[in-house]
Amino acid sequence: MRIAAALQDRFIRWALRVRPPEPAPVILTQRRVYVLPTRAGIGYAASLLVMLLGAMNYNLSLGYALTFLLAGLGVIAILHTFRNLAHLSLAPGRVEPVFAGDSARFTLLLHNARADERRQVQLRLAGGMSGIVDVPAHSSAAARLAVPALARGWLALPRVTLDTVWPLGLIRAWAYAVPDMRCLVYPRPTGTAVPPPPTFGGRAGNAARNPQGSEDFLALRGHQLADPPRHVAWKTAARLGADAPLMTKQYADPAAQTVWLAWDVLPTAMPVEERLSWLTRWVLDAHAAGLSWGLRLPGSQLAPAGGEAHLHACLRRLALHGKE
Amino acid sequence: MAKSKSQAITAMQTWWLLAAALSALLPLTPHVPLWLSALALTLLAGRALLNWTNRRLPARGWLILLTFAGSAGVLAQFKTLFGQNPGVALLVLFLALKPLEARTRRDGLAVIFLCYFLVLAQFFFAQSMATAGLMLATIVAVTAALGSLADARARPADLLRRSSLMLLQAVPFMLLLFVLFPRVQGPLWGLPRDAFSALTGLSDSMAPGSISNLSQSDAIAFRAKFGAKVGDTPPRDQLYWRGPVLSEFDGRTWTSERRLPLPRLAYAPQGPAIDYEVTLEAHAKPWLFALELPGQLPPDSLMTGDYQLLAKTPVTARLRYTVASHTAMTAGLDESAGVLRRALALPGDFNPRTSELANGWREKLKTDEAVLDAATRFFLTQGLRYSLTPPLLGQHSVDEFLFDSREGFCEHFAGAFVFALRAAGLPARVVTGYQGGEINPFDGYFTVRQYDAHAWAEVWLKDRGWTRIDPTALSVPSRISQNLAAAVPAGSNVPLMARLDLTLLRELRLRFDAVANTWNQWVIGYNPERQREFLNRLGMRTPDWRQMTATLAVLAGLVLLGLTAWALRQRRRTDAAQRVWLKLGRRLGRRGLPRASWEGPLAYAARIAARFPESATEIRAISALYGRLRYGSLDPVLLDELKTRVTRFQP
Question: How many domains does the structure of chain A reveal?
Answer without folding.
Answer: 2
